[in-house]
Write a structure and sequence with these properties.
- The protein is of the alpha+beta class and 177 residues long.
- It has a domain at 15-101 and 132-164.
- The protein is 35% helix and 15% strand.
- The protein has helices at residues 15-22, 49-52, 62-71, 104-113, 131-147, 153-165, and strands spanning 25-27, 32-34, 38-39, 42-46, 59-61, 78-82, 99-103.
- The strands form 3 sheets. Strands 3-4-5 form a 3-stranded antiparallel β-sheet. A two-stranded antiparallel sheet has the order 1-2.
- Strand 1 (25-27) and strand 2 form a beta hairpin.
- It starts with 14 loop residues before the first helix and ends in a 12-residue tail after the last helix.
Length: 177
């Protein structure tokens, strides 16, 4: 199912772990979508090296694994922010501006500035399905597209955009002008 194609192995992981990771990524012309395990709306990856790093679990968020594969171990207080607001995105390359590292406080401030934080019945611009259900819908759509033989990154981006649009809280709102 590897829709990603060959990628050079980054310096802070081994070739076998990298192969397992890249087999679970579908490249669109925008985001690169994780199609593996999902927990709480984020992609999860089993990386046995985490135990060697002294972590409690060998399972880590895919965005953290990816960042550390290229840059080395990240401080425990840092998190990977998704500038594209797509929690399953694993696009990491210079200039792409999809993944950055900062604190959880900065992550929440960014979410608040983009009106993506829910509060009781107030939804803001957050997905109507909730983050976890949105991610499951994205993963299912990407798996279905790949199963249908769709490999064109622009077409895959259209599939992704359609899935995201289904959760837009303002989709039914008519423009005033």
């Amino acid at each position: 199912m590897a829709a990603l194609g060959p990628w050079l192995c980054p310096p802070f992981t081994d070739a076998e772990t990298w192969r397992r990771f890249t087999e679970k990524v579908v490249r669109t012309s925008g985001c690169w979508i994780w199609i593996g395990a999902v927990s709480d709306g984020y992609g999860m990856f089993h990386n046995a090296a985490n135990q060697l790093l002294g972590r409690k679990s060998p399972t880590v968020r895919v965005s953290r694994f990816l960042w550390e594969a290229y840059n080395g171990q990240m401080h425990a207080t840092r998190v990977v922010l998704h500038e594209c607001d797509t929690p399953l995105c694993v696009r990491y390359e210079p200039g792409a501006q999809h993944l950055t590292v900062d604190t959880q406080s900065a992550n929440l401030q960014m979410a608040a500035a983009r009106d993506r934080i829910t509060n009781g019945s107030r939804l803001g611009r957050a997905d109507l399905r909730g983050q976890h259900q949105q991610s499951l819908a994205i993963r299912a759509a990407m798996l279905a597209a790949v199963a249908e033989g769709i490999t064109d990154p622009d077409r895959l981006a259209e599939v992704l955009a359609a899935v995201i649009a289904k959760g837009d809280p303002f989709a039914a709102q008519l423009p005033l002008f």
